[in-house]
């Protein structure tokens, strides 16, 4: 039954007409030519945003579950999933995200600098994904999943741990930091 709910939820994300946007990005370090593509799908009915970053080995997928106030980012190169609480002061609302993506489509970087969020990844694997809600549980099921806590802003430049960065268009930069690459 849970699998059926997950599949129906994904179909709902894909079937929402007019709410998926694809934006070409450049300046990423992962690809040889420094470019990639992000697509943002917004589903107001289920209160989720899905951001896909297609950039070779540095590809990732992020699901923002506004209903449960959790977000998860699946790092393909790390073969892991990182779950964290949504910072509603830094992360745009679902409606604002929709507006921002529409405004940025085809324009590229410009305007204000992205907001920076830095997270410390707990090295202990999550045993019960259901605590984060069915949407995130469905996305992270079957792969190692870790919880991350946000590091307060003033300490970010001094943090010396290995970090993996996920830029959400030109809106938000999230860094997931651990004690070693094996941590997550």
Give the strand order of the largest sheet, numbering strands 1, 2, ... along the chain: 1-2-3-4-5-6-8-7-10-9
- What general form does the structure show? globular
Helix content: 10-25%
Order of helices and strands: HEEEEEEHEHEEE
* Distance between the ends: 30 Å
Average pLDDT works out at 77
Radius of gyration based on Cα positions? 16 Å
Q: Which blocks of ≥5 consecutive residues have pLDDT under 50?
A: 4-8, 13-18, 23-34, 180-184
The largest sheet is:
10 strands, mixed
Proportion in β-strands: 35-45%
Number of helical stretches of at least 4 residues: 3
Number of domains: 1
Count the beta strands. Answer: 10
Secondary structure class reads alpha+beta
Keywords: Disulfide bond, Golgi apparatus, Mitogen, Secreted, Signal
Signal peptide: 1-20
GO cellular component, one term: secretory granule
Family: Belongs to the gastrokine family.
Q: Helix and strand layout, with pairings?
A:
Blueprint: H1 2-15, E1 20-26, E2 35-43, E3 48-54, E4 60-65, E5 70-75, E6 80-85, H2 94-104, E7 115-125, H3 134-140, E8 145-151, E9 162-168, E10 172-178
Parallel strand pairs: 6-8, 7-10
Antiparallel strand pairs: 1-2, 2-3, 3-4, 4-5, 5-6, 7-8, 9-10
Looking at this protein, list some descriptive labels.
184 residues, alpha+beta, 10-stranded mixed sheet, 3 helices, globular
Report on this model:
The model is unreliable at 4-8, 13-18, 23-34 and 180-184 (pLDDT under 50). The protein has helices spanning 2-15, 94-104, 134-140; strands at 20-26, 35-43, 48-54, 60-65, 70-75, 80-85, 115-125, 145-151, 162-168, 172-178. With 184 residues, the chain is α+β, with helices and mostly antiparallel strands. It has one domain. The two termini are 30 Å apart. It has a 10-stranded mixed beta sheet with strand order 1-2-3-4-5-6-8-7-10-9, with helices on both faces. 30% of the residues are buried. The longest helix is centred in the first third of the chain and has 14 residues, at 2-15.
């Amino acid at each position: 039954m849970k699998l059926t709910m997950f599949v129906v939820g994904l179909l709902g994300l894909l079937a929402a007409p007019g709410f998926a946007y694809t934006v070409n990005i450049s300046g990423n370090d992962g690809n040889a030519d420094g470019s990639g593509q992000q697509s943002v799908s917004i589903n107001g009915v289920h209160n989720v945003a899905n951001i896909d970053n297609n950039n070779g080995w540095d590809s990732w997928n992020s699901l923002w579950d506004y209903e449960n106030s959790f977000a998860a980012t699946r790092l393909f190169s790390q073969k892991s999933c990182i779950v964290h609480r949504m910072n509603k002061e830094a992360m745009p609302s679902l409606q604002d995200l929709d507006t921002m993506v529409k405004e940025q489509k085809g324009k590229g970087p410009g305007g204000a600098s992205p907001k920076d969020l830095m997270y410390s990844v707990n090295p202990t694997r999550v045993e019960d994904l259901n605590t984060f809600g069915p949407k995130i549980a469905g996305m992270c099921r079957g792969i190692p999943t870790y919880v991350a806590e946000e590091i307060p802003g003033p300490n970010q430049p001094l943090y010396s741990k290995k970090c993996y960065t996920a830029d959400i268009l030109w809106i938000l930069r999230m860094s997931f930091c651990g004690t070693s690459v094996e941590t997550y």
